[in-house]
Here is the input.
Amino acid sequence: METAPAARRRMTVSWESVPRLARGVKLRLDETRGRWVLLVPERVMAPDDIAVELLQLCDGGKSVTAMVDLLAAKYTAPPERIGADIIEMLQDLADSGFLIDGSKQP
Here is the structure.
């Protein structure tokens, strides 16, 4: 059985993952709409405010643990409480092909 090329493998998100937006995926402020949009091949998505904040942290330089710590401090929430939700949201984005593991990219 052949394995998929690295670009086609989906990331499994864990506390140690360092996610970044996949090639062709952009998070942009749409001045006309007055909101952030996620530009993906052949689509435009309108993430909610929490998703935008999380996507802005997906820079390929921060681990999920660091993201959870930042958001937990900002919102005065226990990391263990929001961590599972963050991992679930990131996994959904990774499963859709919007996020890749930034630690394995040049």
Remarks:
- The chain has one domain: 14-97.
- Residues 1-7 have pLDDT under 50 and may be disordered.
- The helical segments are 49-57, 64-75, 79-95.
